[in-house]
UniProtKB/TrEMBL annotation:
This is Nucleolar protein Nop52. Signal peptide: none annotated. Keywords: Nucleus, rRNA processing. Residues 1-35, 354-375 are annotated as: Disordered. It comes from the Eukaryota. InterPro entries: RRP1 (IPR010301). It is found in: Nucleus. One of its GO terms (biological process) is rRNA processing.
C-alpha cells in the first residue's frame, strides 16, 4: 500500500512544490496541436535567422500569453534565445511580443514564481550584448507596454507589476553602470524614461500614467544606490555616479516637478528624489569627516551621490522658477527645493567640491591609505548633445583645519 499524504501538509519550499505540480500536470497534458505546430515552425525560422512575418509574430505573442504554463514557458525560452542572438529587432514586432509577455506575467501566480519571472524578463535589459540596439528596443517596448496597460491593472495584481517596474529600472541603471556611464548608453536609455515620465502631464493620459510616474519616482534613488553598491567588497565603498550623469538622470524628475499639475507627483519628486539625495549626501559627508572613526557601512550609504553638483542644480531650478510661464503652485514648491539644494551646496563649498569635481575619498579602516574608486565617465549634456567626454581619476580632497562644519539647518535632512 502506497504512502498517503496528509491533507494540509506542504513542502518546505512552496516554489518547488508548485514546480513539481506543474511537472506532474505536464506529463498528463499535451499542447494543443495548433499551438505546437506554430511554435515548431517559428523555432525553425528563429534558428535560421529568417525574417518573421506579422502573422507569425501574432501567433508567437498569443503563445506567450497562453493560459497554459508549458506553452508560455516554451515560447519564453524561444524569445530569450531569439533576442540574445539577434543584431536587430523591428520595434513594431517587439511591441507585439511584449503584449504577450505582459499577459504571460499577468497569468503568473504565487509570489516566488512572479519574482523569478520578473527577474528573468528584466535581466535581458542588462545582459543583451550582441547589439545595443536590441537592448534599447526591448527597454522602450517595455515602457510603451506599461504606459498602455497600466490603467488596466487591477488592485489584486498591482503589487507584482510594481515589482516588475522596479526590477526593470534597476536593470536599466545596471546596464549604464556596467558600461561606465558612457553617453552612448546613458542618453538613449534614459530618454525613454524621460518620455514616459512626461506623459503624466498629458491631459488625455494623465490619470492613467500618474500612478506609474509616482512609482518610478519612488524607486529611482534607491535602485541607483543598489546598482552602485553591487559588487562592493567588505572594505570597499560603492561606485560614484559622475556629477554630469547624475544631473542628467535627475533632469526628467525636475521637468515633471516644474510642469505637473498633480501635487501628489510634485510632492513625491521633492521627497523621493531631491530630499533623499540631499539627506544621503549630507550624512555621507558627515561620516567622512570622522576620518578613521568612520565605518565603511556608515560611509557607504549616500557615497554614490557625493559628486552631485548642488550649486548647478540650484541655478537650473532658479531659472525655471523665474520663468513667467511657470505655474504659481509649482513655483512655490521649486523655491522649497532650491532652499534645500542650496544648503547642500553650502556644505560642499566647505569640502572644496566645485562644479565637476571628483568624489572625496576616505581613509581605510586601518588608516593605511585612502580608498580609490574606479574611473568614471564625466560628460556634459545640453539638448541631448555630448560636449565633453573623458575619464577622470578619483582624487583625495585635503581638508584644512578650519573645514566647514555641518549647518544646523541641514540637521533635519541628515
Amino acid at each position: 500500500m502506497g504512502k498517503t499524504r496528509k491533507r494540509g501538509a506542504g513542502s518546505e519550499d512552496p516554489q518547488q512544490e508548485y514546480q513539481d505540480k506543474l511537472n506532474r500536470k505536464g506529463k498528463q497534458q499535451k499542447l494543443r496541436p495548433g499551438i505546437e505546430k506554430d511554435l515548431s515552425k517559428l523555432q525553425g525560422k528563429l534558428k535560421n535567422q529568417e525574417d518573421i512575418s506579422d502573422a507569425r509574430i501574432g501567433k508567437f505573442a498569443r503563445a506567450l500569453a497562453s493560459t497554459d504554463w508549458h506553452t508560455r514557458e516554451r515560447a519564453l525560452s524561444m524569445f530569450e534565445t531569439f533576442l540574445r542572438s539577434s543584431e536587430n529587432v523591428p520595434s513594431d514586432g517587439l511591441r507585439k511580443m511584449w503584449k504577450g509577455l505582459y499577459y504571460s506575467f499577468w497569468h503568473s501566480d504565487k509570489v516566488p514564481v512572479q519574482q523569478e519571472l520578473a527577474k528573468r524578463l528584466s535581466s535581458l535589459v542588462s545582459s543583451l550584448e550582441v547589439s545595443p540596439l536590441v537592448a534599447l528596443a526591448y527597454w522602450r517596448a517595455f515602457l510603451d507596454t506599461m504606459v498602455r496597460e497600466w490603467s488596466f491593472v487591477d488592485r489584486h495584481r498591482l503589487d507584482k507589476f510594481m515589482s516588475l517596474v522596479r526590477m526593470f529600472v534597476h536593470a536599466c541603471l545596471s546596464r549604464m553602470s556596467t558600461h561606465e556611464w558612457h553617453p552612448d548608453v546613458v542618453v538613449p536609455m534614459w530618454d525613454g524614461m524621460r518620455e514616459t515620465l512626461l506623459l503624466a502631464n498629458d491631459v488625455g493620459k494623465g490619470t492613467a500614467i500618474t500612478g506609474l510616474a509616482l512609482h518610478i519616482t519612488s524607486v529611482f534613488v534607491d535602485e541607483l544606490e543598489q546598482v552602485c553598491s553591487s559588487g562592493q567588497g567588505q572594505d570597499e565603498l560603492p561606485d560614484v555616479v559622475p556629477s554630469d550623469v547624475l544631473s542628467f538622470l535627475v533632469e526628467p524628475f525636475m521637468v515633471v516637478m516644474c510642469t505637473s499639475n498633480s501635487m501628489a507627483l510634485v510632492k513625491r519628486v521633492i521627497e523621493a528624489v531631491y530630499a533623499k539625495l540631499a539627506k544621503k549626501c549630507t550624512a555621507c559627508m558627515r561620516q567622512i569627516e570622522q576620518g578613521e572613526d568612520a565605518k565603511v557601512e556608515d560611509v557607504s550609504k549616500g557615497y554614490p551621490f557625493v559628486q552631485i553638483d548642488a550649486l548647478l542644480m540650484a541655478k537650473e531650478l532658479f531659472d525655471v522658477a523665474a520663468d513667467p510661464g511657470t505655474n504659481q503652485h509649482n513655483r512655490e514648491k521649486i523655491y522649497d527645493v532650491i532652499a534645500l539644494v542650496e544648503q547642500l551646496a553650502e556644505y560642499q563649498r566647505g569640502w572644496g567640491l566645485a562644479e565637476g569635481s571628483s568624489a572625496p575619498s576616505t581613509p581605510s579602516a586601518d588608516g593605511s591609505k585612502p580608498r580609490k574608486k574606479k574611473k568614471g565617465v564625466v560628460f556634459k549634456l545640453q539638448n541631448n548633445e555630448v560636449f565633453r567626454f573623458h575619464k577622470r581619476d578619483a582624487v583625495t580632497v585635503q581638508k584644512s583645519p578650519s573645514a566647514h562644519k555641518p549647518m544646523k539647518s541641514c540637521a533635519r535632512w541628515a
